[in-house]
Amino acid sequence: MVAIAAPPGSGKTTIVEQLRAALGAAGESAIVVPMDGFHFDDIVLNARGHRARKGAPYTFDALGFEVLLRRIKAQEPDIAIPVFDRTLELSRAAADIIPANTKFILVEGNYLLLKDEPWARMKGLFDFSIYMSVPVDELERRLTKRILEHGHDAAYAKMWIASNDMLNINYVIEHSVAADLTI
User: DSSP characters for 66-104?
Assistant: First the structure.
């Protein structure tokens, strides 16, 4: 089980999918487990007053995610996993299955290496961890592009990044423990 952690906009999903494809081409079984599948729904975020901070560590079902990682580590057969749908902006339950014979589990997310509980307990579940270090100005550029591609205007992108994404970026950078490999 390999953790791939980095701030928002770093390219985690792209790199992890490329790694999964490369492993598959080499004849190895691999699946991606995205932390984003554990986003709380907007209904929950609105009820808790957290909608404006969607994507912050406390806007995820971290304990549910930890349970999933423990099930994977225990090598339970055919584990259903949720997947976050960026187009719909919601998690789809049981949207993928980890077959029992999968050799490489590629777990990707912003907070996999946080030193804060409950996230800190998860680091011990990974056999190897990778942190992607990307300059903050590049993260901002990529996030702006993503937001614009989802139909929002530049003013909204600037506001959302300043009031939310940059806070999450800085939190990951300042509160993550060292990975086995930094790229």
Answer: HHHHHHHHTT-SSEEEEEEETTTTEEEEEEEEE-TT--E
DSSP state of 177: P
Q: How far apart are CA 141 and CA 116, in angstroms?
A: 28
Instruction: Kindly provide the b/e burial profile for residues 104-137, where b requires at least 16 CB atoms within 10 angstroms of the residue's own CB.
Output: bbbbbbbbbbbeeeebeebbebbeebbbbebeee
Residue ranges, the chain, pLDDT below 50: none
CATH number at residue 158: 3.40.50.300
Is the Cβ–Cβ distance between 127 and 112 less than 8 Å?
A: no
pTM above 0.90, yes or no: yes
Write down the pLDDT at residue 86: 78
By residue range, what is the domain housing residue 58? 2-182
* CA–CA separation, 152 and 148 (whole Å): 5
**E strand spans, 41-175:** 79-85, 90-98, 104-109, 128-131
Structural domains counted in the chain: 1
